[in-house]
Amino acid sequence: MKDSDSDNPAGQDSEREALSQLRVKIDSIDEQIGELINARARCAQEVAEIKKRHSADGEISTFYRPEREAQVLRRAMERNTGPLDNEEFARLFREIMSACLALEAPVKVAYLGPEGTFTQQAAIKHFGHSAHTVSLSAIDEVFREVASGAAHFGVVPVENSTEGVVTHTLDNFLGSSVKICGEVVLRIHHNFLVSDITRVDSISRVYSHAQSLSQCRKWLDAHYPRAERVAVSSNAEAAKRVKGEWNAAAIAGKMAAELYDLNLHAESIEDQPDNSTRFLIIGADEVEASGDDKTSIVVSTRNEPGALHGLLEPFHRHNVDLTRVETRPSLTGTWNYVFFIDFSGHVSDSTIQAALSEVSSRVADLKILGSYPKGVL
């Protein structure tokens, strides 16, 4: 004798009734969500009108406030009671804020392209899909676009957890007036992509950026040891090439796969599962304190004994948490060096001001690159 609901009309009726009640409840919640989103959007429009009325020339370059955005996201996650995790919860709020901001004034964001790169993914993670993103071919171009006012903000990579710093990004700060306005940390997942015409058992060539090929070396050794590994300018370029080659594959992110209509033959093939890249948001203006901030500076020391100790000692004495110290050759002379330093806190903090005042008196030059909200996720 069977006792499953499939053979029990009463059980089926009970299931249908329970599902029907839940769907009515979901419909009601959806209606409330829609009303509240539009109410928020109307508030955003009112904010824009107030800002325009009180601006000196009747127009403001951008309505985006990095410290305000960070505060909103942090509060949203603090109120999150699940079952959605904080990352997903913050992503949903980011898209709502992005759409509302677009009603105030579109934000133009330049990024190191081409389309489909991890840098574009970082730009969307930080600004949302409603921002107007512009692909540029070099880091220098992103800096120039922001410095000239052609873009409100820019997104550039600065360091990878396995490959280290992006020196070209650091060098651009030495001669630029732009400020660091934020940071984005992106988990990097590499995927093995093929096209509809690819013969998977005959792959003899794998395209990707040199760093991605390096980060997936063990997987390639195990699965395609005889395939030629061809380094190209970007993972997006690798994905583009695969479209017309039956014997080739690419290593790239899911965004590139979607952009070029490729299939994910294998996912997350990176050798290090915690592989992450940190990106910087650059802009023209300084950012006010958000309550949980980081500051970046570049310092040129005098060529004398104890110079490095003199540079670092005030931070230790004032209990300032240094999160990164990087050395780069100076552009002003052979065998001269500058130090890029990140630390917790905002330049408006009295402790930070005291430490920087002492450091400034001990070094040849000190430049504050920016104080900005720490990456929310």
UniProtKB/TrEMBL annotation:
<feature type="domain" description="Prephenate dehydratase">
    <location>
        <begin position="108"/>
        <end position="284"/>
    </location>
</feature>
<feature type="site" description="Essential for prephenate dehydratase activity">
    <location>
        <position position="277"/>
    </location>
</feature>
<keyword id="KW-0413">Isomerase</keyword>
<dbReference type="InterPro" id="IPR008242">
    <property type="entry name" value="Chor_mutase/pphenate_deHydtase"/>
</dbReference>
<comment type="pathway">
    <text>Amino-acid biosynthesis; L-phenylalanine biosynthesis; phenylpyruvate from prephenate: step 1/1.</text>
</comment>
<dbReference type="InterPro" id="IPR036979">
    <property type="entry name" value="CM_dom_sf"/>
</dbReference>
<comment type="pathway">
    <text>Metabolic intermediate biosynthesis; prephenate biosynthesis; prephenate from chorismate: step 1/1.</text>
</comment>
<dbReference type="GO" id="GO:0009094">
    <property type="term" value="P:L-phenylalanine biosynthetic process"/>
</dbReference>
<dbReference type="Pfam" id="PF01842">
    <property type="entry name" value="ACT"/>
</dbReference>
<dbReference type="GO" id="GO:0005737">
    <property type="term" value="C:cytoplasm"/>
</dbReference>
<dbReference type="InterPro" id="IPR001086">
    <property type="entry name" value="Preph_deHydtase"/>
</dbReference>
<dbReference type="InterPro" id="IPR018528">
    <property type="entry name" value="Preph_deHydtase_CS"/>
</dbReference>
<dbReference type="InterPro" id="IPR010957">
    <property type="entry name" value="G/b/e-P-prot_chorismate_mutase"/>
</dbReference>
<dbReference type="InterPro" id="IPR002701">
    <property type="entry name" value="CM_II_prokaryot"/>
</dbReference>
<dbReference type="InterPro" id="IPR036263">
    <property type="entry name" value="Chorismate_II_sf"/>
</dbReference>
<keyword id="KW-0963">Cytoplasm</keyword>
<dbReference type="Pfam" id="PF01817">
    <property type="entry name" value="CM_2"/>
</dbReference>
<comment type="function">
    <text>Catalyzes the Claisen rearrangement of chorismate to prephenate and the decarboxylation/dehydration of prephenate to phenylpyruvate.</text>
</comment>
<keyword id="KW-0028">Amino-acid biosynthesis</keyword>
<keyword id="KW-0584">Phenylalanine biosynthesis</keyword>
<feature type="domain" description="ACT">
    <location>
        <begin position="296"/>
        <end position="371"/>
    </location>
</feature>
<feature type="domain" description="Chorismate mutase">
    <location>
        <begin position="13"/>
        <end position="108"/>
    </location>
</feature>
<dbReference type="Pfam" id="PF00800">
    <property type="entry name" value="PDT"/>
</dbReference>
<dbReference type="GO" id="GO:0004106">
    <property type="term" value="F:chorismate mutase activity"/>
</dbReference>
<keyword id="KW-0511">Multifunctional enzyme</keyword>
<protein>
    <recommendedName>
        <fullName>Bifunctional chorismate mutase/prephenate dehydratase</fullName>
        <ecNumber>4.2.1.51</ecNumber>
        <ecNumber>5.4.99.5</ecNumber>
    </recommendedName>
</protein>
<dbReference type="InterPro" id="IPR002912">
    <property type="entry name" value="ACT_dom"/>
</dbReference>
<keyword id="KW-0057">Aromatic amino acid biosynthesis</keyword>
<keyword id="KW-0456">Lyase</keyword>
<dbReference type="GO" id="GO:0004664">
    <property type="term" value="F:prephenate dehydratase activity"/>
</dbReference>
<dbReference type="GO" id="GO:0046417">
    <property type="term" value="P:chorismate metabolic process"/>
</dbReference>
<dbReference type="InterPro" id="IPR045865">
    <property type="entry name" value="ACT-like_dom_sf"/>
</dbReference>
